[in-house]
Amino acid sequence: MYGMLYESVQHYIQEEYGMDTWKKICQIVDCKHNTFKTHQIYPDKLMPDIAAALSACTGESFDFCMNFFGRCFVRFFSNFGYDKMIRSTGRYFCDFLQSIDNIHLQMRFTYPKMKSPSMQLTNMDDNGAVILYRSGRTGMSKYLIGQMTEVAKEFYGLEMTAYVIESQNDICGGTAGPIKLTEGPLTVVVKYRLDFDNRDYMAKRVNIVAHPTQLKMPPVDLNVFLELFPFTFVLNHDMKITLAGEKIIETWILHNPGVNPKTFIGTHVMDVFKCRRPKDTKIDWNTILQMRTVLFEMELIRTGHNRDAYDAALNMDYENFDEMSLNEAQTMALAKADEFEKEQEKEQEEAAATKHDEIDPATGQRRPSVGLRSILLKGQMFYIKDVDSLIFLCSPLIENLDELHSIGLYLNDLNPHGLSRELVMAGWQHCSKLEIMFEKEEQRSDELEKSLELADSWKRQGDELLYSMIPRPIAERMRMGQEHVCQSFEEVSVIFIEVMNIYDSGSTNVQEAMQAVNTLNKVFSALDEEIISPFVYKVETVGMVYMAVSGAPDINPLHAQHACDLALRVIKKVKSHNLPDVAIRVGINSGPVVAGVVGLKVPRYCLFGDTVNTASRMESSCDPWKIQLSNYTALKVRDVGYRVEARGFVKVKGKGDMETYWLLEGPEE
Ligand code: HEM
Ligand SMILES: Nc1nc2c(ncn2[C@@H]2O[C@H](COP(=O)(O)OP(=O)(O)OP(=O)(O)O)[C@@H](O)[C@H]2O)c(=O)[nH]1
To answer: Which pLDDT belongs to residue 366?
Structure first.
């Protein structure tokens, strides 16, 4: 389904439910698109999936969400100026309801691959109407109610309520997916009752009094129609073709070279046509009689595709054929067809031999498939009382000159007054203009996609940098606008790790300094790898000292154990690096601290209090490759299985004699 529908959904979900809800929905439906491209096609199931996700996020029902999306679409397409098109469909809401098919048809140059639904107004009265919706997509039936409700309100000032009278295959679609009971695509058929004030429209219909001169009009000779609409055909009650325009017969011969042209007349319509729209329509007299306001699309069945046989068949003067010579013409046409087939096979072998590219280097376009494309006729079935027949007043649906050629037709085959030519030429110009526009749009949206990705990566890098200076929970609070983030913690464990013998600060040797920086970087990177948030948080590095904390900013009752685990891990890890002469020593102390972000230019998360000073002393008075715990920390972890050894009383600067412990190992695994 085209991106335009998804753009409207994304726009209004973000506007009415917020960006976070939209992000959550994208996560749920695994949608990778930051934006949707208007003219790009996306999976149909995404629409019901997004509705199911919105329903899960908001508690609204699935139907409510699909109805909401339908309303979003109508509100959104005004951005493209389509509201003017809706307003011009007719004075009354019923006029609009009968023009929806046409609206989609007129948009087929802009959305060439559109598979739009078909709508048929089957009944009207003062209080509303009944409309029949057919589509190859599941899950859109409530979407349509939203669209019609919004159009009725926005463009006709009508309050409309709609409900489903009966339906077939109207299942929700989406990833859960329709359970395909039958092979091939499902056709969804839904009949709605629309309740709205329709008195004006009904009154208008009654008041149109035919002018007296119109009352006694002479019947029109059907051949006039066939001249005006050379692709037209007439059907009797058995739905057999009783009359046909010159061009439809010619085209049928062209597409069915071996068949006797005379057989076209008298054949059942469904033996020579496929009904493309409305889907799955029963082609019988009574059904079609009910569908006079519906736009039909009939595709001519073709059995063959060769020009020469056509010329041969066309140049035959069938009028004077008796049965025998008629077969002669057929034989000749078939011989021509065989010849053509052989030529084609030879050409394809040559093409295969010369690595015939699918893409024509001259135009960069895919080479058209050899042979003729079938022709699609669009029109309405009218009942002509005088001859008690149905006439299919139609024109060929041809988008551009390439398509005209691929069907084997020329501009002068198209009826001059039927606007088909103008449409083809306009379509052709429109398409080429559109192609340029699409390319530009593709380019712009690719650039937008790239800049969004770049912005994303910068944001990620910025976040990483920020989180390296400030713990994530603190950064999020500051991002939400919380000013001075300062907190006191009853008890944390502070860890100081010093890298020793790495550099003689008195030395002036640059080489040594460079070497020291490299080694320090290796050791600190190894320490960084052991920091597992939210259990332990890296606070800072000052010179050769690496400071960490457990129990802030995330409260953590096991802070002492996590601090000791970190210490044991880093001793083991740095030892495993076997860096010559390098050693580390670790000091840990537990107690209360105050923590907060200080500084504007380079904000830092800092800890304050005597607990920090003591932890630092535990490190600075520790032996290489050892972990020294304060008395308080040692008693805390000894009770939970950590092996500690009393070091005795240590003279600690600014603290006097302190009883400290060595940490030997963690609890038995
Ligand atoms: C000028 C306005 C409109 C434009 C440009 C437009 C265009 C489209 C496009 C591009 C699609 C997607 C089809 C596909 O990707 O295959 C679509 C689908 C659809 N349109 Fe329209 N449309 C318009 C007005 C309307 C209105 C007014 C209604 C009904 C009140 C309507 C009913 C639908 C429905 C129900 C679908 C869903 C597809 C389905 O059910 O199979 N459209 N339309
Ligand atoms: N890296 C780091 N070290 C700290 C912090 N707070 C205190 N210290 C260290 O803890 C030790 C004890 O601090 P104090 O009791 O204030 O001692 P001081 O007199 O300021 O500093 P010294 O000259 O080392 O005695 C000192 O070595 C400080 O450098 C801190 O937030 N970060």
So the answer is: 43
